[in-house]
């Protein structure tokens, strides 16, 4: 019998957590032959709701669900975890400055980095979803000195998927026809969705759409999609965010398609001139459980300016949490 894989989810009673837990439990992340034990973390006021999530998970009778742990203790949630999806974060309250939000979350993610360091499996793979995701991932890995920083990533897959959807709609093709989309930088309004290397049905995407559309329509639409969803739904993206988290971890664990790449925010190794150490979204290929930044892409002046702008924002965020990294 295969040993179950331990998957920790923080903020598991929240909007995204409520989607994620069921999809993972049903085998959609690691496949139908991998039993999973879900280790769910919440803050004490949400433990009642978390109990309800646990009850519903059991009621699904998923063949791939080998157990559920529901707790408010990080050391329990991360014990021997093979995967940790860090979704729980402090939302921006009324009158709260972005700087305060950064600091409040920095405290959560430094504590969780330490708890992962002390309790998780040595090969744990961490995905940070809670915002500001890139900088939270930076804080987490800096507080986990015994773990390989390459085990810490942040989610820009939702932005990547949004970019695929926009390009598919514009060209009248299916998302399946598109290869080599890239999302550079921060999961924020400075992100840079880049179609320069994309093909659609094998044809270069830049030859199918005009530059004005890319600059004035495509890029801002993808950057502002989160705000547009909030405006339409009254609450932020949840199902699509959970779906992107599943895509991210599945591709990391099981491999990205051989003829394509995906976008993941990972600790920079200086590729493309991006400051080493910050958690920046790059095009990556995943194989045998490891990611690798795609090298050698030609970068235009237009792209360079946008890649630098989103890097500058991440450097500013890093400087705002200096004491915790
Ligand atoms: P919710 O407010 O619905 O859920 C968050 C949950 O986290 C709550 O149940 C809360 O009790 C819990 N929580 C708070 N602090 C915690 C802690 N220290 N330990 C454990 N649990 C804790 O938010 P939801 O809509 O699920 O969004 C979660 C996070 O994802 C937010 O930070 C949000 O901004 C971020 N997002 C990130 C995206 C990305 O692409 N990287 C996209 C979607 C989403 O906006």
Automatic annotation (TrEMBL):
The active site is at 187 (proton acceptor). Residues 5-145 form the Lactate/malate dehydrogenase N-terminal domain. The keyword NAD applies. Substrate binds at residues 92, 98, 131, 162. Residues 156-318 form the Lactate/malate dehydrogenase C-terminal domain. This is Malate dehydrogenase. PANTHER family: MALATE DEHYDROGENASE (PTHR23382).
């Amino acid at each position: 019998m295969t040993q179950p894989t331990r998957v920790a989810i923080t903020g598991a009673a929240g909007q995204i957590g409520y989607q994620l837990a069921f999809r993972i439990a049903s085998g959609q992340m690691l496949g139908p032959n991998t039993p999973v034990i879900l280790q769910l973390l919440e803050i004490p006021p949400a433990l009642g709701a978390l109990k309800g999530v646990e009850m519903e998970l059991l009621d699904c009778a998923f063949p791939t669900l080998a157990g559920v742990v529901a707790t408010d203790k990080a050391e329990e949630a991360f014990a021997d975890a093979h995967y940790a999806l860090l979704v729980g974060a402090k939302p921006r309250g009324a009158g709260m400055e972005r700087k305060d939000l950064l600091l409040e979350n920095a405290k959560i993610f430094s504590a969780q980095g330490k708890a992962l360091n002390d309790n998780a499996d040595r090969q744990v793979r961490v995905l940070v979803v809670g915002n500001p995701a890139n900088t939270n991932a930076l804080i987490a890995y800096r507080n986990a000195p015994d773990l390989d920083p390459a085990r810490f990533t942040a989610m820009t897959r939702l932005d990547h998927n949004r970019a695929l959807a926009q390009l598919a709609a514009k060209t009248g093709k299916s998302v399946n026809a598109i290869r080599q989309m890239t999302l550079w930088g921060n999961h924020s309004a400075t992100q840079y969705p880049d179609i320069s290397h994309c093909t659609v049905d094998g044809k270069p995407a830049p030859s199918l759409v005009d530059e004005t559309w890319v600059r004035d329509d495509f890029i801002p639409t993808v950057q502002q999609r989160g705000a547009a969803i909030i405006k339409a739904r009254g609450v932020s993206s949840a199902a699509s965010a959970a779906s992107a988290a599943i895509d991210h971890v599945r591709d990391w664990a099981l491999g990205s398609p051989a003829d394509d790449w995906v976008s993941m925010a990972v600790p920079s190794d200086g590729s493309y001139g991006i400051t080493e150490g910050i958690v920046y979204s790059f095009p990556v290929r995943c194989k045998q459980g490891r990611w690798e930044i795609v090298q050698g892409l030609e970068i235009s002046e237009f792209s360079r300016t946008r890649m630098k702008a989103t890097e500058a924002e991440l450097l500013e965020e890093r400087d705002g949490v200096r004491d915790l990294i």
